[in-house]
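The protein record quoted in full:

***
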Amino acid sequence: MLLRVSDLKQYAYCPRVIYYHYVMPVDSKPTFKMEYGKTAEDRIQRLEKRRKFKRYGLDNGLRHFGKWVVSEKLGLSGKMDLLIEQAEGRFYPVDFKMTEGGVRESHKLQIAGYAMILEDIYDVSIERGFIFLIEQEDVVPVELDDKLRSKCRKAVKEMRRMVVEESMPAPTAYRNRCTDCEYRNFCRDIW
């Protein structure tokens, strides 16, 4: 079973999102924030095509937008917002985020997932990825260390276990996240 790289972010946000997506598929309604984020990503993508690589600390490279990547070995797949490719097999995953709170652990997990897939596909080592904060027009580097990779593998393993066993996880401890959640109507035990 292939999980989506975006599931890593969702799992870190609230594990029940994964449960509702895979175990009890329900119709969810995209939130305003989700729709607005998609529009903002499209705008940034158009601008990024014309920009230099200085904000990434790079001199040059090729940009690949919307690249699908799959690793059967990791059991992950996803569509990358941006992949920067340089000579000698250097790759940098970039994820666009519509957030005001800066880079979060969930964002780092997602970048780590993309990096690990790229490493599997191209047999390279990726030490850094980037989070592009749309609202701030800022690029934040993410160091892909062993600790982050371990968290990523652990999350994939736990998501897979949850789906296979069809076990409902506990809700997020941060109830303010529930307010704008697309699945909030299904969590009657906390409302």
